[in-house]
Amino acid sequence: MSDPFGNILSHITTLLLLGTVLPLGAAPIQAQARDSGDDPLSDVDFQHQNLYHENSLLFRATFGDLIPGNGFDEMAVCSKNGRITVTYGSDMSWTTELAEWAYIDNNPNDPAEVYSLAAGDILPDRAGDELVSVDSDYSVRMITYDNGSWNSKTIWRDDDWLYEVAIGELVPGNEGPELVVVGESGRATLLTRSSDDTWTSEVLFRDNFAIDTCLITDFDPFVPGNEILVAGIDRNVTLIERIENDWIPTDISFLGSSVIDLASSDLDASIPGEEIYASTFDGNIFMIENRNGSFSANNVHHEGAMVYCLESGILDDENVIVMSTWNNRVALLYNDNTDFRVREVYREDYVIPGCAIFDVDPYHKGAEIFSLSGLGYITMIYHDDPGADIILPFNETTVSMNETLSLPFMVRYKGGYNGIVEVEVTSDGNVSTEHHLRFDEEGIYKTNISIDRKGQHVIRFGIAPPSEGPSRELIVRVVDDDRPVFFDPVLLNEKIGANRQISRDLIVMSERDVGNPFLIEPVRVPTGISIVSNRTVIDPLGEPIHISLIVSVSPIVSPGATYFFLRMSSTDGRSRAVGLTIHILESSVTDFDLIFQRTSIEAAVGDNISVDLLIVPINSFQGIVNLTLADDVEGISVAILPEHIEPPGTVSVAIEVLQDTGPYFVTIRGASGNLVREETLMIETSPPRPDILIEGPQDPVLLAREGGDVLRAEFTLNITPVQGTISDVRVEVIGASPGTTISISPSELRNIPYRVPVTFRIDAPLNTTLSTLTVIFSNDDNEWIYNISLKKAEEAKENSGSGLPSWTFSLIIGIVIIILLLLIHKGKGANTLNRKRQHGEIDVRNKGASHSDTAHERHHGRSGGLDRMVR
To answer: What percent of the chain has pLDDT over 70?
Structure first.
């Protein structure tokens, strides 16, 4: 990645300016924020469950109608390993799909870190919402779900990492919303879609430092429509407003520390309209208010660690801000009309980079809160009114006359209820069953039902006070035949450890040919538990049919009892079920585990691959894990960096493919004392991949005036194939300013057997805002990128007339560096901050501290890294 500072002087200046202004040990000025008390959310009993585990650090989530026709909204999550997943479901059962895997320069062995994503109705002619993301490949991607599959398209590229994208209505008269993206370049860029489905860019604001976060909201009542707020490393929150077709930026608050995230909400009823909430690198949350165009910032909470994510929402009719922190917790910030309060709702053993709040689960009350963990867990945090629920494995079935139906059902506690549950069973007089059931704990039970009269009968299960809950109905159709069928047993109760599996057998009994095959499927299976059966379809013919089940439990499942059903259903409406109770046992062994982000990859000869290996502590493991290659593998080169680590943490396994004789199996061994764990990565190999070499102008392309109000330029890119002939290559250009036209000749290359020139002609308005053009060469298998910077010929001529030789600038820079270094080292104990902008890192060190109390934090712009070591 190019260095956005341009020279070492900028690095030293950043160190001086930022390092001496951020007093990490200073006591903050803040309002009283208490963790509990007499407030509307103090008595809410929050519960949580893990929905999914990704072998990577997770960054952000968004929600929308991403799968049209699904019947409910879905949640999309982005991650450090480039994967964007979409999760949907209800109660205990959730499904996660891979929507996109972003790569750098389309190299499948070099995943891009996807920092942010947003959802909205961007394409008015398409059903549902679209998803957009930004990443370390400098790309803005649009992701859609059509015809049963996920599709991705790059709609714009910058020349540096992009940290956040926001969607909103900004320009009156445009069809559909606009996008705003910010990132390492320090630019806030507006992306507008044209009627021909192309995107144009306009730079709204430029800062000298990276912009980490942006927000679109209606914050200024004196300006119609929405405004944009941006913030980042320079510690200012900037308001960007559209006034008489011009974008006007105004710094509205200086917060004294880099700003990590922004959110808007109306927490303080005494202030008209919404407030802006900003989290800062030194662990503070500020409220920015707008009173008749006068802006002021107040510190409303000090967390004691960096607050990495802020999201606004409504919980129990209360406006809240959800925050996730570097000290491993998710908490609520809200106001009880007298005070700002903080309520912790979830905590785990590692940093939590992301959070969200949205009503995505119809089973639970109101909105759910989501934790996106540094260890890759998506955790849903929810609450319900105290009570109980009855859950049936099916809502209707068919039985034979006088056949006894053994019906398993689930008694489920909600909202922290822990008492007696009484169930009243009502029906017509022809149904024989227990009419009053009493339970003192949740679980799966059964009741026997027999009916001696043909026809349709309705059986109602109602929960009596005080454990009130919804009633359930079962429709039973009785037919005049003699074809009973049933499971044996109807209830299974087993114990199993996390990350383990068990095998159990069932029998389906019938007295004669039932006449229809039965489909066997698990029902309401909790996320993290999988069931594999040796049969998915059976045909009862009067003989016992044996079914073998393998129940597997993943490490994401929390200890405790969990319940679900195995159901079989025939085409003539007969349904039967088995109720399963699985007790997940908690291991007390102190241990660690090794997890590759991917278990297999594909690579061509000559590829250099870097794969992250996650080292996870189990049961508060403490110690150093020594990592080695278990066996030497001919044909590849392997390096592990670092070779020693204290969990939790991540190491990089660097692999170079030397020969096409795979697949290769790379086994990494981790050892700590007597504990030894191994993890294996499979590498499928192929011959060297076809590639192209793109040669073009190294200096900016100059646009010269061509009469009238037109700027014009031409340039040529020479395309040379590497490793064979490249076929069916398309050429397109993105990133042009409004009003600019670009002619490409040729725009399609059927074959590239040798060097082929491609000529580009640019015609731009005289008052155009110049930007970097991104030329994309692509076919069905690959995509190649080349960036072209533009400059007006008149500006280039003016800049070349300074008259000072280059050695003069070098001398000046050298003198300034020496002076700045002397200033930095003046005064023992001064706080300094060294920002390595090429990698987006921030190193914070207290120079007056001893080695034992040195704090080293890496921030990677807004959303990268999240490594923290305190020694």
So the answer is: 86
Q: Give the distance, in angstroms, between the CA of residue 499 and the centroid of all CA atoms in the same chain.
A: 24
pLDDT tens for each residue of 192-205: 998 888 899 999 99
Domain holding 278, by residue range, is 8-382
307 lies in a domain?
A: yes
pTM above threshold 0.85? no
- Alpha-carbon gap, residue 332 to 343, rounded angstroms: 5
**CATH number for position 601:** 2.60.40.10
pLDDT digits (tens, 9 = 90+) for 556-570: 677 889 999 999 999
Q: Which residues contact residue 31 at a Cβ distance below 8 angstroms, ignoring those fewer than 6 apart? A: 298, 299, 300, 301, 339, 340
Residues 513 and 645 placed together within one structural domain of the fold = no
**Sign of the C-alpha dihedral computed for residues 301, 307, 313 and 315 taken in this order:** negative
Let me know whether 100 and 155 are in one domain: yes
Query: Hey, what long-range contacts does 400-404 have (CB within 8 A, 24 or more apart)?
Result: 400/478, 400/479, 400/480, 400/481, 400/482, 400/483, 400/484, 401/451, 401/452, 401/454, 401/478, 401/479, 401/480, 401/481, 401/482, 402/450, 402/451, 402/452, 403/450, 403/484, 404/448, 404/449, 404/450, 404/484
Domain membership flag for residue 807? no
Of 123, 219, 217, 133, the C-alpha closest to 181 is 133
- Among residues 327, 353, 382, which one ends one of the domains? 382
DSSP 813: H
State the total domains in the chain.
4
φ/ψ (deg, to 5) at 504? -140, 155
Mean pLDDT across the chain, nearest whole number?
83
- The CATH number given to whatever domain includes residue 199 is 2.130.10.10
The enclosing H or E element of 8 equals helix 8-19
Backbone φ, ψ for residue 810 (5° rounding): -60, -45
**Residue pair 102/112 in contact by the 8 Å Cβ criterion:** yes
Residues 208 and 160: their CA atoms lie apart, in Å, by 14
Per the domain annotation, does 841 fall within a domain?
Answer: no
- Do 708 and 664 reside in the same domain of the chain? no
Q: pLDDT digits over 297-310, tens only?
A: 999 999 989 999 99
**124 preceded by cis ω (within 30°)?**
no
Q: What is the CA radius of gyration of the chain?
A: 31
Q: Read out DSSP for 81-132?
A: TSEEEEEEEETTEEEEEEEEE-BGGG-TTSBPPEEEEEEE---TTSSS-EEE
Do 340 and 452 lie in a common domain? no
**77 within 8 A of 378, measured Cβ to Cβ:** yes
The answer to the question of residue 174 being in a domain is yes
Average pLDDT over every residue of 154-176 = 92
